[in-house]
Amino acid sequence: xxxxxxxxxxxxxxxxxxxxxxxxxxxxxxxxxxxxxxxxxxxxxxxxxxxxxxxxxxxxxxxxxxxxxxxxxxxxxxxxxxxxxxxxxxxxxxxxxxxxxxxxxxxxxxxxxxxxxxxxxxxxxxxxxxxxxxxxxxxxxxxxxxxxxxxxxxxxxxxxxxxxxxxxxxxxxxxxxxxxxxxxxxxxxxxxxxxxxxxxxxxxxxxxxxxxxxxxxxxxxxxxxxxxxxxxxxxxxxxxxxxxxxxxxxxxxxxxxxxxxxxxxxxx
Length: 268
Known about the structure:
The chain is of the alpha+beta class. It folds into two domains: 2-100, D-amino Acid Aminotransferase, Chain A, domain 1 (2-Layer Sandwich); 106-261, D-amino Acid Aminotransferase, subunit A, domain 2 (D-amino Acid Aminotransferase, Chain A, domain 2, Alpha-Beta Barrel). 25% of the residues lie in helices and 26% in strands. A hairpin with a 2-residue loop joins strand 13 (231-240) and strand 14 (243-246). The radius of gyration is 19 Å and the shape is globular.
């Protein structure tokens, strides 16, 4: 079941023209959101922020605006069946919305953390400030670390600075404050990342946005990655060419971020 171009379709296949640029070049943009309280209007679902990100990319690429009311209608249909939605837009204004369930092992990863490995620098995301359909670099990066028994890969630049994981933004704790790589280094400014920054600042907690150099990352007590679906996932091990780094997946300060995603969180 999915929504495409104004229609709810019961099928596992999508028919596209063989010359469709979305098929040929990955010429699409998308956003993925987790729907809280079965409502797009929940402050945690953050529907408007996801729409605004799509609009920013549409404007940047000079693509046709879709029918936003139709997108909302399709999303409303699908949240009756799925807690996670992926909304994809084509250059000519067509919309495609699919739904999925939360990862089966999400609670386990949130509790015990995951192992990551550093990806080769050539595995980068195309147009990193935008969430485009061309995710080949990130997909290859994640696949390339599976032989190390890693569940995620960390993307790096040519100097070895850590940027983001293949699916989320990085967070670290040291020197009594939170750290996250800044947007200007070439990361996706995630919706969840923006929520967390605002939440922490509202709690009078310091957030430092600075590049994650190979020297900086050795001093973190704890690190994690976040996105709008998985919330926050601790990272207990990072494999790299010079050896592995170990972090505390049970650090007490993770609770500062987890409070945001609790159903009793104060709206902002």
